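Why run this: before we spend reagent on co-expression, it is cheaper to look at a predicted model of the complex and decide which construct boundaries make sense. The entries below are exactly what would go into the expression plan.
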Amino acid sequence: MSNVLEVRNLKKHYNSFALHDISFDVPRGYIMGFIGPNGAGKTTTIKLILSMVTADSGTVKCPNNERIGVVLDAPFYVDEWRVRDVEKALAPFYAQWDTFVYANYLSQFGLDANKKVKELSRGMKIKLQLAVALSHNAELLVLDEPTSGLDPVAREEICDLLRGFVSSEDKSVLFSTHITSDLEKTADFITFILKGNIVFTGQTDALTGKYARISGGLDDLTEAQQGLVIGYRPYCTGFEGMIELAHLTKMPSSVLVEEISLDEIIIYMTKEVGVHE
Amino acid sequence: MNKVLASAHLDYVTVKPYLIIRYLVVNTLVALGFVGFYGCFATAIYFGMMVATLFLSYPFSIGEKNNMDALYVTLSAGRKKVVLGRYLFTFGLNLFAVLIIVVLTLLYQVVGGLLGMPALAGEQSWMMLSLAALLVIIQALMLPLYFKLGYMRTRLITMAKVIIVVLAYLLFMSHIYSPALVQILSGLQGMIVPLVCVTALVLALVVLASICLSQHFYDKREF
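The model came back. Tokens follow.
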């Protein structure tokens, strides 16, 4: 399996935040979800990949900008532009720009070519960025929080579109979000970043299959067993947390073990990091 | 399309919605007013370039307001070509301003001639053209700062800089009638062609240095 994007040992230090040795690959033909809570370093990593900021060290191997489609959380078109002006402004930068494809996406997304950018809702602005990103035969789409602030229907629409995009095997997507439900249906691979560190990178099933949700009574666990529970949280009547399946044999049979969602993995991991700081 | 041209075109498309016709008409009328008042065609060229210098900040201010630096970086042009495109746009802006003024001044001459108005005098032309050259230098000084600091932070510095440069020029001009300077200038009057060539060369070098500085600064910017 070849990679369309290879990130190796990226480091970036700010006064109040740092990225440490970020490494991951986006395999060609797949959707990679890039998850983590707010402030974990997702946007900084994406900015490093897109050369918006300069890394202190490390390398990024990716297609040239002409073959990358970008959708950012904060739209970057002039408010006074009409939707048709966006094409006039950007098409000259792309040798493979396809006016027909752009017009098709505008029509599919219900975007009026005469409307001004400032008159579009957030969802429509994201769709406009997507229409541009998909109209120049990009082989990699980089999306930074495209679904945040959108209603479930619009989110589903975007996820459908991304699934369609990678149906051609040479196209890939790096999709950053903190709305993990979008990824559970869409992403083949997950990279999980927390406080500037990569916690996990690999197949989505491997992440959800690695952990389980665990709960039980307050007296069920010894101190040593509590230490194995990630994000251990005691209540007045019991506890809950997350455990690696490999450690399950060390737990008493009285505890309840359930499947865990990506959301819960993020929550427990974040709690765990908070506990140890 | 060549990526530098595409960048210059992007700047034009960026600024276009803000180029309100009535604003252009008002500026044109003011320029013609200057021509009529001073009776000097070069005054209008100077005025046109001054307006162009004001418009020069538009791609920066609009870009900053709309988060467009992020867009520029993600485009396939590369930062150096974005900078070159901005300089090309600036050149086009100056050229456009000068062309409009030339056309309007010629019209003014023709219509004025038909109406029996006095013809435009040319004695102030060199002074005004030297001011226009000064504007090119001001633009060349402004652009690297915009690329380094962005619009908001540069605005105040630029205003201060323009005032200093203009004051320095006025100070220089106020001494133009000193005997030594008059002697130098009258000596130079016989060498108009070399003088123009040297001035053009100096301006070209200043602009080239400005481009290099801008590219260096913009390369280091983070968005």
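Chain A touches chain B through 27 residues (CB under 8 Å). DSSP finds nine helices and 13 strands in chain A. Bring this page to Monday's planning discussion.
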